[in-house]
């Protein structure tokens, strides 16, 4: 079984478009079928493009005629999974052969109504694997090679050519007896479960009524299906027909009781097969519905938590708005109170706390004014707006006043204990 991190890495390597949804589906399937493993492989898709694909490979347990077999399968996912149906294959080992049916072709590709009707989120990998297991219970897709076929395929006889090697076939043999799918030898298959190997190749065909004429309207033995019953055992065979009760007046006809028993057995098997198929699909759908319900309940809890957080934030914002409105009202009232009085003079906007400090400020301002005046006189002299004599006379007067202001300012600072 692969971990969620490994599954996510494989999905990323396969360029999956919906990693979160696909990961959740795959992890759910792996939790139920622990013999499957996640990985990537190069695969030729039905659209004709070969690219890296995510795949589940391993075995699924299938109960066939009272024994549990591990059927090797591979499931390839599209990059749009779970919104597109997967592609499933049965992978027989060297000791197995594929039994073709309406659900499995000779290449091992699986065909199921569940795949044709695939709709997300009603369908998932867990339901698909469960349906595959139920369908394989009715018609086992693989069978063990017979010992004679395996030995002849490995070592041809001296009288046979290289091209006449016999090929093992999964179809019933022409023998009139009914072979059983029980073990024919130890170590026949690499996937036994509970000590039971895969059924032999002849288990799919048996004829319980060997003396039935060719013109009988009821099913022949060769058409009998190997569907297991509800308890996993093979359907009961009718009692043997004696020569006195089965043959009538030398024409080989069968007694009416035997015909009735044969027809009832065939009808019972067909009804049982259809019932299993319907129940298997319904069971998978119910499992998918339960999973969807769990997801919806989880989403409901998340939505409730989000609503509670939003309600808390709304209350906090409402409190902040109330505080802001109160402050705004207070500021508006202060502005209205301050706007009713006349503005003070600019010179009185900044005033010293003590008269001595006020005198320092005044002398400092006059000192700076003298500097500005001397600068203005120099500019006027450059522009020849005043004569040199006027310039010198005015500078002398301004310098005398500036000296008095500076001396007064130093004396005040000395008196106030300030640095000079």
Short description:
The chain has 420 residues and is an alpha+beta fold. The protein has helices at residues 4-13, 19-32, 113-116, 125-138, 147-154, 243-246, 256-339, 355-382, 388-416, and strands at 36-44, 50-64, 67-77, 87-90, 96-98, 142-144, 192-193. It is built from nine helices and seven strands; from the N terminus they run ααβββββααβαβαααα.
Question: Mind explaining what this structure looks like?
Answer:
One of its GO terms (biological process) is protein transport. Residues 153-193, 221-258 are annotated as: Disordered. It is found in: Endosome. It is a single chain. This protein has 420 residues and is α+β, with helices and mostly antiparallel strands. It has two domains: 1-146 and 171-230 and 259-335, Roll (Ubiquitin Conjugating Enzyme); 355-416. The protein has nine helices and seven strands; from the N terminus they run ααβββββααβαβαααα. It has helices at 4-13, 19-32, 113-116, 125-138, 147-154, 243-246, 256-339, 355-382, 388-416, and strands at 36-44, 50-64, 67-77, 87-90, 96-98, 142-144, 192-193. The strands form two sheets. Strands 1, 2, 3, 4 and 7 form a five-stranded antiparallel sheet that branches. A hairpin with a 2-residue loop joins strand 2 and strand 3. Helix 1 (4-13) packs across helix 2 and helix 4 runs antiparallel to helix 7 (256-339). Mean pLDDT is 75; it is low at 150-254.
């Amino acid at each position: 079984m692969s971990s969620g991190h490994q599954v996510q890495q494989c999905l990323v390597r396969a360029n999956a478009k919906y990693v979160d949804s696909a990961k959740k589906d795959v992890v759910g399937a792996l939790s139920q079928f622990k013999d499957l493993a996640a990985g990537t492989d190069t695969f030729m898709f039905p659209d004709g493009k070969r690219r890296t694909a995510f795949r589940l490979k391993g075995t699924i347990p299938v109960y066939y005629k009272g024994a549990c077999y591990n059927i090797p399968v591979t499931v390839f996912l599209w990059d749009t999974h779970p919104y597109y149906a997967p592609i499933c294959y049965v992978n027989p080992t060297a000791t197995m052969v594929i039994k073709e049916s309406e659900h499995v072709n000779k290449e091992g590709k699986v065909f199921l109504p569940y795949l044709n009707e695939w709709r997300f989120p009603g369908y998932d990998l867990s339901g698909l694997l469960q349906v595959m297991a139920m369908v394989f219970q009715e018609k086992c897709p693989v069978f063990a090679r017979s010992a004679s076929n395996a030995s002849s395929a490995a070592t041809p006889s001296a009288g046979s050519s290289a091209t006449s090697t016999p090929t093992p076939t999964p179809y019933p043999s022409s023998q009139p007896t009914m072979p059983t799918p029980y073990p024919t030898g130890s170590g026949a298959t690499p996937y036994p479960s509970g000590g039971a190997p895969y059924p032999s190749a002849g288990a799919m065909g048996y004829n319980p009524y060997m003396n039935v004429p060719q013109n009988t309207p009821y099913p022949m033995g060769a058409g009998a299906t190997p569907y297991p019953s509800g308890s996993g055992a093979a359907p009961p065979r009718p009692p043997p027909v004696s020569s006195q009760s089965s043959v009538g007046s030398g024409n080989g006809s069968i007694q009416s009781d035997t015909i009735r028993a044969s027809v009832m057995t065939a009808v019972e098997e067909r009804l049982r097969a259809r019932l299993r198929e319907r129940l298997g699909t319904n069971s998978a759908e119910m499992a998918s519905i339960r999973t969807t319900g769990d997801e919806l309940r989880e989403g409901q809890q998340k939505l409730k938590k989000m609503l509670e957080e939003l309600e808390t934030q709304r209350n906090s914002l409402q409190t902040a708005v109330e505080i802001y409105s109160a402050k705004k009202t207070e500021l508006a009232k202060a502005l209205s109170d301050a706007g009713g009085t006349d503005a003070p003079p600019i010179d009185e906007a900044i005033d010293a706390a003590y008269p001595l400090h006020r005198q320092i400020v005044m002398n400092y301002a006059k000192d700076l004014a003298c500097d500005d005046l001397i600068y203005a006189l120099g500019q006027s002299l450059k522009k020849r707006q005043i004569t040199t004599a006027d310039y010198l006379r005015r500078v002398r007067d301004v310098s005398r006043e500036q000296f008095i202001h500076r001396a007064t300012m130093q004396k005040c600072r000395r008196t106030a204990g300030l640095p000079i």
